[in-house]
Specification:
Layout: E1 19-23, H1 37-52, E2 59-64, E3 71-77, H2 83-100, E4 105-110, E5 113-118, H3 145-166, E6 171-179, E7 182-190, H4 196-214, E8 219-223, E9 227-232, H5 245-278, E10 300-304, E11 307-310, H6 319-325, E12 334-338, E13 341-348, E14 351-358, H7 366-376, E15 387-393, E16 396-402, H8 410-413, H9 416-419, H10 424-444, E17 448-450, E18 459-461, E19 467-469, E20 476-478, E21 484-486, H11 499-504, E22 506-508, H12 509-525, H13 541-550, H14 560-565, H15 568-581, H16 592-600, E23 621-624, E24 640-643
Antiparallel strand pairs: 1-4, 2-3, 3-5, 4-5, 6-7, 7-9, 8-9, 10-11, 12-13, 13-14, 14-16, 15-16, 17-20, 18-19, 21-22, 23-24
């Protein structure tokens, strides 16, 4: 693959940062006092926005302080300005909003940026309220209003998909000729904390208001919290991406020529590697193997090497459509890379999807592809990620899943700023949802499935924060009367593997129970299990939790903010359940059906005392990384460990 890096020089024509609108809700209870903790936090927040927005690709949000004086802030620069102009605009807007608004929430719009702060979290939430800058009233009327309105409507409608679904920055500009030498120039932009469908909804709310106020004028602007629209009869925006074409050509040509030699060498080496891979027999690719995350009832029939016929439950998407949805698998749409292949974000029928592009080394033949799809397709559950469709063409084998806008659990529980977004009820629902998903795999589905790689990055969160277990690349099927299995190839993620599996290759439903216990400990503490290795506290998070528990100091294990926001008795009950799940003897660990019952009980009466947990040194196993993992991906990842 050839990567081309192009430096786009911004023109000097954009220098002004005119104030468009300032919104300060004038309510008595919303005002804050001078030199108060809230004002001090606000000062720090605005300084953070001024210094970080320009280096964060023109969009940044941050949180300062603790409740009740916590402040949330967000800044957005117009998508066509350079970092210098962006920083200057956000600085000026921050100064103005601090001087002019003594309220706990305010938002200000400049021509080239906007700044918003509030005492209530507003990230990732779309709320439309259009504002009309005074400059709209200064615009003259056009001479041919009927024709002008039609052209304006077409222009702004054409920009909708580009802004909401195509542009990485959710920013688009364009122009359309009215008559003779006269053209209309339009701009649309959304804040990048909302999902793309909400961006589209925001723009669709703004455009009628733009038409209502300004469609017969020589220009107009509507600003809102999450989107802005504007048009003029002059080119008011920068088109830097169309400049310096000759430089781009030179860079492309030189890069391609430099890559020819590398490609020729890679082809030679790849042929040798492929021959070696074809000779490797892997027990995991037997009839007990599982395709990662195929979790929807389907029936797929493959009739030839390059053709596929699918049932109504699982649509077949042709390769050309998938390439178009992912911009030909562009790096800008890449969510992550795993042992089974790369994951891309795409758009189909106006909806975001996650597309798994299976690597060739994981798929040696068409028969395996058919078997895997029809096998795992028998599963369906609220807490399992759903398969939407599949694609097939040449050597490409693709799987399309529902897209998880809130990414994975680890992006919340290990981030101090994002943890505050979750209340105890949300934690409770996530924990119970994971447990119910595992229970379905172990007992309630037609097949008995052992996941073998449960961890926070493999628990995805939908728009309602419902947890969905993902990444079944290492899962195994058990027969009805089978309780344990043995493997010579231990795969998984260290820290979440039960010791009998990591050291001896023995796995069962109790292996998943152990992993669930570790995940529960990480949720309660906000700490990673791996982060405890060789610390002064303990070798593992499990050992640390056990030490505090047996000393009667279980509350010290729980993350302080969580301890303040939830019933102490309930969170300590969850800690006790987690310790029951990580006991050293697999027979002593509860089943997932028992775990679900324990989680649902109102008190801890009758809860057995946990015995010594499974504690073993990390140095006794040697990590063998099979993939890289991106916490912002859709969760389709893989890693492996082999015993020494």
């Amino acid at each position: 693959m050839v990567f081309i890096i192009i430096l786009l020089l911004m023109p000097t024509t954009i220098t002004g940062a005119d104030l468009l609108y300032k919104y300060c809700p004038d309510t008595t209870h919303a005002r804050y006092n001078a030199d108060s903790p809230f004002e001090n936090n606000l000062k720090l927040l605005l300084e953070s926005l001024s210094s970080n927005t320009s280096i964060s690709d023109g969009f940044y949000n941050d949180t300062i302080g603790n409740s009740p004086d916590q402040v949330y802030g967000q800044a957005l620069c117009r998508g066509d300005v350079n970092s210098t102009v962006c920083q200057s605009c956000v600085h000026d807007a921050s100064q103005e909003i601090f001087k002019g608004c003594k309220h706990q929430e305010a938002i200000i719009w400049y021509e080239l940026c906007q700044v918003h702060y509030s005492n209530i979290i507003f990230f990732s939430t779309m709320e439309y309220y259009g504002k009309y800058p005074e400059k709209n009233k200064l615009k003259k009327n056009v001479s041919q209003p009927n024709q002008f309105v039609n052209v304006l409507t077409n222009l702004m409608t054409n920009l909708l998909d580009q802004t909401a679904f195509t542009s990485k920055r959710m920013f688009a500009t364009g122009d359309m000729k009215v008559s003779g030498n006269q053209s209309i120039y339009g701009l649309q932009q959304c804040t990048r904390d909302i999902i793309r469908s909400e961006c589209l909804n925001c723009l669709k709310s703004a455009l009628p208001e733009l038409q209502g106020c300004c469609s017969t004028h020589e220009g107009g602007t509507i600003v809102s919290r999450n989107c802005n629209v504007r048009f003029e009869l002059y080119r008011f925006f920068n088109e830097g991406n169309k400049r310096k074409t000759w430089k781009v050509v030179i860079i492309c040509v030189s890069t391609i020529l430099s890559a020819v030699f590398i490609v020729l060498c890679a082809v030679y080496l790849k042929r040798g590697r492929r021959r070696r891979l074809e000779n490797v027999q892997d027990e995991e690719r037997s009839q007990h193997g599982l395709l990662p995350e195929l979790l929807n009832p389907t029936s797929v029939t493959i009739i030839e090497e390059n053709k596929m016929v699918s049932s109504e439950e699982l649509p077949f998407i042709d390769l050309a459509t998938i390439k178009d949805a992912t911009d030909d698998f562009s790096d800008s749409n890449k969510l992550g890379q795993g042992g089974f292949g790369a994951v891309y974000k795409g758009w189909l029928d106006g909806k975001e999807v996650a597309i798994k592009r299976l690597s060739r080394k994981s798929w040696q033949g068409i028969e395996e592809f058919r078997n895997e799809v029809t096998l795992i397709a028998k599963l369906q559950h609220r807490n399992l990620v759903r398969l939407l469709a599949c694609g097939f063409g040449g050597e490409e084998k693709l799987l399309l899943y529902e897209f998880m806008p809130n990414k994975s659990l680890d992006t919340f529980i290990f981030d101090l700023k994002r943890r505050v977004e979750l209340n105890w009820q949300t934690y409770h629902n996530i924990i119970e949802g994971i447990a119910r998903g595992l229970l379905y795999l172990h007992e309630d589905s037609r097949l008995k499935i052992i996941h073998r790689d449960l961890k926070p990055s493999n628990v995805l969160l939908d728009h309602e924060m419902v947890p969905k277990i993902s990444d079944f690349g290492m899962a195994r099927i058990f027969c009805d009367n089978q309780n344990t299995a043995n493997t010579t190839r231990v795969v998984g993620t260290h820290g979440y593997m039960a010791p009998e599996y990591a050291m001896e290759g023995l796995f069962s439903v109790k292996s998943d129970v152990f992993s669930f216990g570790v995940v529960l400990l990480e949720i309660l503490s906000g700490k990673k299990n791996s982060g405890f290795y060789l610390t002064e506290h303990a070798k593992t998070l499990v050992e640390y939790a056990w030490t505090l528990w047996k000393d009667g100091k279980g509350s010290e294990f729980v993350e302080p903010l969580l301890m303040e926001r939830c019933p102490k008795e309930e969170v300590l009950k969850y800690l006790q359940i987690a310790l029951l799940c990580v006991q050293e003897d697999p027979e002593e660990r509860p089943t997932m059906s028992a775990v679900v019952v324990l989680l649902g009980n109102d008190d801890s009466i009758g809860l057995p005392e946990p015995k010594k947990p499974a504690i073993f040194a990390i140095g006794r196993v040697a990590p063998m990384t099979m993939s890289t993992q991106n916490p912002s991906s859709n969760g389709l990842t893989l890693s492996g460990i082999s015993p020494r």
